[in-house]
Amino acid sequence: MTNYDAGDVLTVYGGTPLNGELRVRGAKNLVSKAMVAALLGETPSRLYDVPAISDVAVVTGLLELHGVKVTNPSDGEFVFDTSDVESANVDEINVHAGSSRIPILFCGPLLHRLGHAFIPDLGGCNIGGRPIDFHIQALREFGAVVDKSEKGMDITAPDGLKGAKLELPYPSVGATEQILLTAVRAEGVTELRNAAVEPEIIDLICVLQKMGAIIKVHTDRVIEIQGVPRLVGYSHRPIPDRIEAASWAAAALATRGDVFVKGARQVDMMTFLNLYTTVGGAFEIDDTPGEGGIRFWHPGGELKAVAMETDVHPGFMTDWQQPMVVALTQARGLSIVHETVYERRLGYTAALNQMGATIQTYRECLGGTPCRFGRRNFMHSAVIAGPSKLHAADLVIPDLRAGFSHLIAALAAEGTSRVYGVKLIQRGYEDFEGKLNALGAHVELG
Ligand code: EPZ
To answer: Looking at the structure, do residues 246 and 194 belong to the same domain, yes or no?
Structure first.
């Protein structure tokens, strides 16, 4: 473990319940998209409650490369001035290659503003193949010409972008956002079937509507967008980060603690709350305007094993899976987890086993309906036998959400763990070290 600098290693003295209060801000998976949407507006946009996470820094860097003036007049408030949008230098864009998946969403806005776009090879968490075929297919149907070059993708629209009738093979979040960000200023009407309808997507639609877009969300995953010739800037307060909220809720359960997550909203977390109660966790909603949140705690006694399956909204989010699995190592009996969104999102369970958990992964679709990954050699189901006493270990963080799970496991375990690669957690969790300290955890960097 010699390749990590001191700021990238967290020493965790485990075994202390997390107790106290923290606040979640705007959802990472909306904020980054709203920042891209600002490119479409002819006047400045203003976004509030933006968390200080590295994904925001990556998108800020990309916007600035394209001539957007980004200012931060007060804590969490960002202003995007798009009056001088310009082409960026390919080599400069490539500096951001590999650090995030957001650049793919620049396609539509850049095509509308500049007539061409260059997208570097993409990064993001390594949790499956993460292809972009739905994105490319949709862009082509809008009339874009996509050429793969050595360093990334060159995209042009010689005849402009025109509305299209589209149907996604799977309700992909990113592809739905791609289509929204392209269709709003394409000529004519776009009809999208089998769209993703996650709350972050609905919030992006709210942003676009504020900018002047005309978007109808029908039932059964159908979204209709009527293109308009110009859009203006927006002023928006994003929905709270329901993934971060659930991560702290799982941490409270795994450490037998009691955590008030200020800013968390019931409406975005109903499916999570159902499972939390079934496992034996307790929660209480405080809906005081501006002050509210959700208190999550372990009510004592034993947790119960469950069978669960991840799915697109309104199902149980794939990003909630890893933190909850750590809590499930403490439940009595056999829990079953079927991951149906990403084919390789259970690799992190090997580290939990090293710490004393008993988790076996399977190729079969266990406990639920057969999914796209069945019989295809992907270890995408798990059986967790509990309760297991977790002990400390040296852990290397593989990706964002699995990384936070490692952290929860280290907090729940007896003894001193060293967690390597914690900077990856900063992609999606604002000041997690400060929050851990505020909750009474014994952790130190280095
Ligand atoms: C978003 O990823 C989120 N990322 C993910 O959160 C989240 O896990 C995911 O949606 C599902 O909710 C951001 O919003 C930045 P998808 P995205 O397209 O849009 C397949 C986190 O930790 N697919 O809905 O990239 C794909 O392989 C991150 O915050 C194709 O096959 O996810 C996957 O199996 C991790 N072809 C499924 O669809 C495509 O062209 C869903 O992916 C696109 C996707």
So the answer is: no
Assess whether 125 carries a catalytic annotation: yes
pLDDT for 1 beyond 70: no
| β 381-386/394-396 pair status | unpaired
Q: Which atom of ligand 1 is nearest to the CA of 318?
A: 8
CATH number at residue 171: 3.65.10.10
Ligand 1 contact, 342 CB (< 6 A): yes
Scan for tokens 């923290």, then name that residue: 22
**80 contact partners, CB below 8 Å, separation of at least 6:** 35, 38, 39, 41, 44, 45, 46, 47, 63, 68, 69, 70, 233
pLDDT at 150: 76
Mean pLDDT of 173-182: 98
Based on the domain organization, do 212 and 82 belong to the same domain? yes
Structural domain contains residue 232:
yes
What is the pLDDT at residue 126?
62
Which domain, by its residues, includes 194?
28-236
The residue contributing the CA closest to ligand 1 atom 21 is 319
CB of residue 80 inside a 6 A radius of ligand 1: no
The pTM is what? Answer: 0.96
Residue 163 has pLDDT above 90, yes or no: yes
State whether the beta carbon of 25 lies less than 6 angstroms from ligand 1: no
Are residues 219 and 259 located together in one domain of the fold?
A: no
pLDDT at residue 101 greater than cutoff 70: yes
The rounded Å distance from CA 85 to ligand 1 centre is 28
Examine the domain organization and report whether 311 and 362 are in the same domain: yes
